[in-house]
UniProtKB/TrEMBL annotation:
Catalyzes the interconversion of 2-phosphoglycerate and 3-phosphoglycerate. The record marks 156 as: Transition state stabilizer. This is 2,3-bisphosphoglycerate-dependent phosphoglycerate mutase. The gene is gpmA. Its EC number is 5.4.2.11. It comes from Pedobacter segetis.
Length: 193
């Protein structure tokens, strides 16, 4: 039987609810996000988890804390690392997406949000995020997977998109169309075929 790599985007954050660019701003879950984390915990009850990785941001850590409490994972080792943080949105962090679209145009905001290699002002592109996430995946997470451990990674839309791009061997054109829903586990058999 093959072991599992489970990827989970945190539940909806307060900034997701308010339509704000979040990035590295450390905002917590909304009430809906708490409910999404509880629903994810129910979906994961049947999965054996040996090791957990999260970003250092509260919305990912709080999502895992909810899962930990519901699924009884208190003795499972946890590693937190900023390599798994959301992409940095730079000057846009904390600002309303609709206001920014009005100021710079919807097309420009779409380019900043969805292109592979064009960052927002003073922020990271998905490509930059990829080159932060994948080395960490190879140096830490993959080693645990290769030991036969079942791994849960609780992170963010763009850090997980970078990881999915790598795992599924997606092109930069394919990954810009990929959405990662909040609170919905993505389960891979390891090794990925």
């Amino acid at each position: 039987m093959r072991n599992k790599l489970i990827l989970l985007r945190h539940g909806q954050s307060v900034y997701n609810l308010e339509n704000r660019f979040t990035g590295w701003r450390d905002v917590d879950l909304s009430e809906k996000g708490i409910q999404e984390a509880k629903a994810a915990a129910e979906k994961l009850k049947s999965q054996k988890i040996d090791q957990v990785y999260t970003s250092i941001l509260i919305r990912a850590k709080h999502t895992y804390q909810i899962i930990e409490d519901i699924d009884g994972l208190q003795n499972v080792p946890l590693k937190e690392d900023k390599a798994l943080n959301e992409r940095k949105y730079g000057d846009l962090e904390g600002l309303n997406k609709a206001d920014i679209a009005e100021k710079f145009g919807e097309e420009q905001v779409h380019i900043w949000r969805r292109s592979f290699d064009i960052p927002p002002p003073n922020g990271e592109s998905l490509k930059d995020t990829y080159y932060r996430v994948i080395p960490y995946f190879k140096s830490d997470i993959k080693k645990d997977l290769d030991k036969g451990l079942n791994i849960l990674v609780v992170a963010h839309g763009n850090s997980l998109r970078a990881l999915v791009m790598y795992l599924d061997n997606l092109s930069k054109e394919e990954i810009v169309e990929k959405e990662i829903a909040t609170g919905v586990p993505i389960i891979y058999d390891w090794p990925v075929k």
